[in-house]
Amino acid sequence: MKKKLFIAILFVFASCSKDSDAVYEPTNYQYYYLTSENTIKPNQIIGGKGTLEANAITIANNKLYICNGDVLEIFDATTLSYLSTLKSYTKGTTTIPFTKLSSISIDNGRIYLGSIDSRIFVLDENKLSGINTIGNGQWWQTFVHVFGLKAKDGFLFVKEKNNSVKVFQTAQISETSNWNLAPIAKLNTLKGGTEIYSMDIANGNLIVAGQNANGFLHYNLKDIEKNATSSLTVPILPNTKTLTDNLPSSVVFSDEWAMTTENIKGTNYIRLYPKNVFLDQNYTPIINNSDIMGENTFKSITNGAVLKDRIFVADNANQAIRVLKLNKVTIAEQK
User: Fold this and answer.
1) Which of 146, 239, 150, 244 minimizes the C-alpha distance to 192?
2) How many whole angstroms from its chain centre is CA 58?
3) For residue 333, what are the β-bridge partners?
4) CA atoms in the 13 A half-sphere facing the CB of 69
5) Helix, strand, coil: what percent of the chain each, to 5?
6) Cβ count within 10 A of residue 178
7) pLDDT digits (tens, 9 = 90+) for 237-255
8) Which sign does the torsion angle of CA 301, 304, 306, 312 carry?
9) First to last CA, the chain
10) Distance CA 132, CA 129 (A)
11) CA distance 152 to 302
12) Tens of pLDDT along 46-75?
C-alpha cells in the first residue's frame, strides 16, 4: 500500500504546473527508489545444512557467489536458481576443505577465496579446480588471518587482523608459485580488529569500507606502486574523510554507482551514490534506505553486490540474500 501511495505522489507532482498561456520546455528530474524483488533462502540450497550466513557475496559472469560458513554457494544471478556448492580446494591429489570463508573476489578467470584460517584459495573460475594456495593455515606465517580481499588491475589486496593490508601482484601467483608469497607493499587502515572488511577498486583507486575508522579509505594504485618498497617498513596511509556517525561495512562499484552498506547511529542503511561523486569524497547519496517503503527493515546487512538495476544484500539476521530493484522515475516539471 505504501509503495502504491509513494508512486502515486510522484505522478501527482509530475502533473502539477502553473497556469499560463505561454509554452515552456519542461525541466526533467530523475528520482530513484528501491523495491523488494526476491529473496534467496537456505531451503534453496540443495543438500545444504539449512543455514545461510553470508560473510561475503560477489557477482561475476552472471553467477552469484556466496561465502556461506565453510562452503561456497553458487547461484544463477538472473534466475536465482541454485547451481552448486563447493566445499573444498582440489588440485590433483591434494584436497583442502574450506573453513571460515571470509571473502571472495573474481578477476581474470580466477576466484580468490579468503579464509579466516590464514589462507587464500585460488581457483579456476570455469572449472572450479585449484590453481594454488597462499598461506598454509598458520596465522604466524603468510597472513595473520584473512578478513577481506580484492583482486583487480593486477593487484591482490588482503586485509589481515588489526590495521594491516598486504598487497600482492596477481602475476606472483601461478600453479607452481610458493605458498609463502612475500607482499610487494603494505597499507595501513588506521584502525581494525577481527572484523570482515569490504573493498573494491574504481578509477585507479582502492576503496576500503573502514568500519572502525568511520570512513571510506582511499588508496591510489599508482602511489602504491611508487611507494611499494618503503611501505614494507612504514605502511601507506589512506586519504580519508571522517564520517563521525558512519560505520561503513561494505562498498561495491558498478559502471554508474557506488553501493554501500553503512551503520549510522545504530541503524543499518543501503546507500547509493553516483560513482564519480563518491570517488571525489562527496558522500551525499541519492538512495538512503533503512527499509523498503517503510517495511522490511534492514536489521543486519553486511555486504552486497550489484547487477545492472538489481542490488543483492546479505541479510544475516534473516539468513537470506535480499534482491532489490533500483527504480527510476523521470518527472517533467512545467514552468
Assistant:
1) 146
2) 7
3) 27
4) 12
5) 10, 50, 40
6) 12
7) 999 999 989 999 999 999 9
8) negative
9) 31
10) 9
11) 22
12) 998 899 999 999 999 999 999 999 999 999
